[in-house]
Amino acid sequence: MTEKYNGWTNYETWRVNLEIFDGIAWLDQFDDDMEVYEATDYLKEYAKEILESENGAKGLCFDYAMAFLDAVNWREIAQSMMDNYKLEQTA
């Protein structure tokens, strides 16, 4: 069983959200009608593209980074971004 980390599912989810997605506005990436499952797929691909552009998508370090991303709860990040956007719209 994985323990929560700073309110997130796990350390990997918290760290990826903090270092890759923190500060990104919902409408910068998505539209109002996008469902959370679509956003989940997008976020996963976005993070992978960042790793590929930074490291050239080869070698042991890249493989470890991809394994780290496998532990991320992408739906939780997408839902958090979606919820934050909705809060901003009602404020």
Features:
91 residues; globular; 70% helix; mainly alpha
Task: Write structural notes for this entry.
By secondary structure, the protein is mainly alpha-helical. The protein has one domain. It is 70% helix and 0% strand. The protein is built from five helices and no strands. α3 (36-55) packs antiparallel against α4.
Topology (elements, then pairings):
Elements: H1 11-21, H2 26-29, H3 36-55, H4 59-70, H5 74-90
SS class: mainly alpha
Distance between the termini: 37 Å
Query: Count the helices. How many?
Result: 5
Strand content: under 5%
Q: Could you give the order of the helices and strands?
A: HHHHH
Unreliable stretches: none
Could you report the average pLDDT, rounded to the nearest whole number? 85
> Main β-sheet, in a few words?
none
Tell me the total number of β-strands. Answer: 0
Percent helix range: over 70%
- How many structural units, i.e. domains? 1
Overall geometry comes to globular
Short description:
With 91 residues, the protein is an all-alpha fold. The protein has one domain (11-90). It is built from five helices and no strands.
